[in-house]
Amino acid sequence: MILPIYTYGQPVLRKQAQDIALDSLDNGQSSMVNGSKDLQRDLQCTSDPLDEGQRRLEHEKASRANGQSSMVNGSKDLQRDLQCTSDPLDEGQRRLEHEKASRANGQSSMVNGQCSTVNDLKQLIADMFETMYKSDGVGLAAPQIGKAIRLVVVTLDPLKEDFPEYAGFNRAYINPHILEFDDSETETLEEGCLSLPGIHEPVKRPKRIRMAWVDEELKQHDEWIDGYLARVLQHEVDHLEGKVFTDRIAPLRKQLVKSKLSSLQRGKVNCHYRVKPMR
Question: With contact defined as beta carbons under 8 Å apart, do 246 and 254 qualify?
């Protein structure tokens, strides 16, 4: 699913992103806040929870119309599955409407951006890759799609003509943290950003960094990274720290792009991909 990219001025781009609760995912527990439960898990289904939820509600209505309880052929009690004390029809309808609204806003069955299952996380990663490809980007951080969690996807395959070593390079970085910057050698290159369409400025960065992260298979890494990948990762990790690349340009350059940034804050955006501008 292609998600809208949040543009400059959106508060989430200035928030400190939080680590994804991987321990909860590994244990099959929900990392969602306020006691909210994953609809798919509560309904104990492997199909789309919207379809299953709607089927269960229709079944409950039919059972009541026939003077039966909400249990047929040993199926689970809807009220118990939804873990509610109110009428399960009302609660079930509320949960379905919440799920529909979440999907309409480009979210999965998550609360405050935190994933509740490994499948949620993998689906979010897949959606981020699809969004990045459609937007012609080489990197995308979760805050750029409205989620203040430490998750980054990178594709360097489009650069394979200039960097053959990056052919087929598509990776996700879960909970990335830059541990060290090797300042012995720096490089200034022009950068752009999907959240700041139309703005490109030279940025000076170290050519080598040490970073820790978890991959899609939930394996931990702690490695030194150099070259263009190191630059892309520094740019994306900046998003997780509530920064954008224009925070790192020279003061004079900041003054020159001030009007463009102000336009983005007013919701004036011109780009070919789907965005969520300021209103």
Answer: yes
Residues in contact with 229: Cβ distance below 8 Å, sequence separation at least 6, in sequence order: 154, 156, 166, 169
CATH code for the structural domain at 118-276:
3.90.45.10
Indicate where the chain has its CATH 3.90.45.10 domain(s): 118-276
Torsion of the alpha carbons at 229, 234, 236 and 240, rounded to the nearest 10: 150
pLDDT at res. 185: 97
Question: Scanning the structure block, which residue is given the tokens 């089927």?
Answer: 55
Instruction: State residue 43 phi and psi, 5-degree precision.
Output: -85, -5
CA distance between the termini of the chain: 24
Q: Could you report the per-residue pLDDT of 30-45, keeping only the tens digit for each?
A: 433 333 345 554 555 5
Separation of alpha carbons 200 and 256, rounded Å: 11
Residues serving a catalytic function are 236
Check residue 39 and give its pLDDT: 55
